[in-house]
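Exercise 7 asks you to align residues with C-alpha cells for two separate proteins.
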Amino acid sequence: MHSDQNIALRTLFVCSLLFSFVRTSTTNTLDTISPNQYIRGDQTLVSAGGTFQLGFFSPGKLTSRYLGIWYTISNEIVVWVANRETPLDDSSGVLKVTDQGVLVLLNSSNGVVWSSNSSRTVDNPVSQLLDSGNLVVKNANETNPDNFLWQSFDYPCDTFLPEMKLGWDFVTGLERYVSSWKSTEDPARGEFSLRMTPYGLPQLVVMKGAKIKTRSGSSNGLRLTGSISRPNPLSEFEFFLNKDEVYYEYRLLNKSMLSRYALNPFGIAQWFTWIENTHSWEPFFSTQQDQCEIYAFCGSYSSCNISNAPVCTCLKGFIPKSPEQWNSQNWSDGCVRNTPLSCSYNDGFFKYTSFKLPDTSSSWFDKSKSLKECKGLCLENCSCTSYANLDIRDGGSGCLLWFGDLTDIRTFQSDSQDLYIRLASSELGGF
C-alpha cells in the first residue's frame, strides 16, 4: 500500500510540472460544509481544484483574526475577507451555515460577528468554495451551477477575480465594487474603490472617497477607452449593459493560469499573473503610471501627453482659462473656447485620432445610430460638444454624444479611437 502511495505521489509531482502552477491535492479535504459541520481554528475549506482555501488568518503581526479566502499556492495573498470591519479578538471563531442557509461567524460567546445577508431560504443548504474563489450558499440538490442563495462575488474586497462582475444590478440596487484595504495589515475598508459609474455611458474609475482618482473609461467594443491599444494575450474582457444590469468582467484564456486585479491601500490598481518559474506574482498592468493617469490633470478641453514638455496642451480652438496659472504649470483650470459656438449647422468638427475619450458621465448613446446620424444629432443640440462611434469594431457603429465640458483627455502614441470635437466654423480654417 505504501508503495502504491509513493508511486501516486511521484506521478502527481511529475504531472504538476506540466502546468503553469502546482495545484494542491484535495483527496482528504472538503470544499463544502452543511449545517452539521463547521470551520474553526486551523481548519480550512479547499476548492475542488485546489486553487483557493477558506479559513482563519491574522495579517502581518496582528493578533486579530479574520475569515478569508486565499490562494493555496500563495497563502499571503488574501482575495476576500468576510469580517473585514469586525475582527475576532482571539482564535475561537467558528463558521457555520444555518438550517435556513445563512453563513454565520461566531465568537467565543456565540455572538454573531458576521453573517451573509440573504432574504431567501432553502431546504437543504450547503456552503461551497468554488475553484473560481467564489464562496457560495446554495441548495445541495441544485443542478443549475449559477443559482446561488448567496455568493461572496457579490461583495468583493480588494480583489477583482476572473468571472467576477464589477458593476450594478439595477433590479436589486446591488453595486459590486472593489475597495482597498485600510493598510497592508488592516483589511478594513480603505479610502479607495474601483467601481463602475452608472451615469451616461458607464465607465470604470478608481475613486478616493467620493472623487475620481483615475479613469479607465468605457468600453468601445474592443477595450476600455482609457487603455493604450495593445494585444492582451492573457484574457478576454466583456462589457454587458441592458435595462437590468451593467457590469464588466474578464475571463482567462488559459484556464491553468492564475491572475488577479487588485487595488492596494494607496489607490493603485494592478493586474498580477502568477509566474511559476519565479514563484511570484508579476504585474502585467498598473494604473497611474504617469501624471496623465491622474483624473483631469490638464483640466477641460486640454490633452495630456506624457512625451511633451509641458505635458498639457489646449485643444485646437481653445486657449488657457487662467494664463498665469497655466504658465506656472498649474493646468487644472484647463482651457476655454477661443471663439463661441454659433449653435447652428455652421459649426463644424475637428477630428482627433489618438485620444483617450473624455469622461462620459454627461454623455448619451444609441447603439442603432450611424456616425453620420450622430453628427447631425450633435449639431441639433447646442449643448453637444463632441461625438464618436460607440463601438469601433467592424468599421464602427453606434453613436456617443458628449454634453458640457470635455474632461480627462490624454494623447496616446498610437491610434485609438476617432473623436470629433465641435468648433466654431472660423476655428476650422481649411479643415
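Second protein for Exercise 7:
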Amino acid sequence: MKKRSSPSLDAPQPLDPAVFHAALLKWYKRHARDLPWRGVDDPYATWLSEIMLQQTRVATVIERYQEFLLRFPTIRALAEANEDDVLALWSGLGYYRRARMLHRAAQFVTRELKGKLPRTAEELRTLPGVGDYTSAAIASIAYGESVAVVDGNVERVLLRVLGRPEDKGAATRALIQETAQSLIPPQPVRRTRANPCGDHNQAMMELGATICTPRSPLCLQCPVLELCQTRGEHITGERTQMQSRTVAHLLVRRRRGTREEVLLSRRPEDASLMPNMLELPPLPIDAVEGLEPVLRVRHSITNTNYYVMIFAERIAGLPPQTEDLSDEIALVTDETVTHAVSDLSKLDPEDIPFVAETPGEDDELSLLSAIPTAQTDMFWFPATRLPALAITGLTRKVLQRLGVMQIPKPVRRVP
C-alpha cells in the first residue's frame, strides 16, 4: 500500500485572486444559506450576529438573534438596558463575557460616539470586545471595506488550499492573514448595492462551514477544488481531548399562595465561568450517592463534558404575605436583593426573592441542607419570571425539560 505523503512545507504556489474570487462568489450566490442577518443593511445587526456566532452553532444563534433584536433593536436600546436583561437574552449561547462586552461597547458608542458605530476596521477595534476578526467582519459586510476576515473556517480553507499542515504558529498565522488579504477584491470607489468585499468574506466562512469542514470535507463540491494543493489529502490535527465531570444540582420548589417559586443561587462574582449568573443550587456528589435523580443531562462547556444529575424537592409553602427566614441561609438584606435584581422598579413587591426556610421538625431531612454553606447567595423567584432572568444555559435547559419553565415560542423574522 502506497504511503500518502504529507503536504509540502515549501513555499506555496501563488493563487490567482481574480480566478479564486470568481469561482468562490459564483458558488456562494447559488448555495449560500438563508440566514436572517444576511442582506440586512444595519451595521448594528451585523455586529450583533458576528459576536453571537463566535464559537456558537448557527442554529442556536438564529433564535436568539431574532429575540435580541426585537428586545434591543438599536445600539441605544442595548446601551440603556441593564446587564441582567442582556444576560437573560444571552442565556444558552454561552461565553457570557461576549454579552457583557457587547453591552459595554454599546454604552461606549452611545456615550462617546453619539450613537454612531465606527466605519473602519481600525476604528472598530477601539470598541470593548472587538478584535481583528469582528472588526474585519463588520467593516467589510456593513461598510464594504476591503479587509479580510480570518476565523477558524477561513484558516482551515486556506491551509488546505495552500497545501499546509494545520499549525497554530505565528508564522503560519501571518501567512494565512497575508493570503486572505491578497484574495479579497479592492473596495469599490463608490458604494453600490453590490458588496464584493463583504460577500467574499461571507463566502469564505460559508465554504469552511459547509464544504471544507474539519472532518470529511466535501471536496468534490468545492468551488476552488482545481486551485487546491491538497484536494482531500490534507492531514487533520488531533481532536481536542474532552474532560469529563459529574455534577449535581437541586431543583427546589414551593408555593407562595397561588404562585409557584423556584430557588436559585447566584454564581460568585469571581467565577471563571458565568460570573454572577443564576443557577440551580449545586450539590456535593457524595451527598447524592445512591440516590436516583429525576433527570440526567449532558452539557458541554468549552472542552469539558458535564454529566449532570438533577434532584428535586418541594418544600412547605407559605401564605401569600408570610416570609420565613432561615439561619442556615443568609438573610436577604436590601443590599443583597439589589445585587440579585439590578432593577427592582420592574418587579412587583411580591416578586422580590426570599431565602429558603428550614424544614420543620416533622419534615424528612432534605437535600436542601446538603447545599454547601458557602452557597449563601440564594433567592426565590416566581416561575413565571424565569425566562427574563440571567440564568445559565444548563439551568435553562433543565427547567425547560422538567416543564418548570416555558419554552419560548419562535419569534417572527426581523425584516
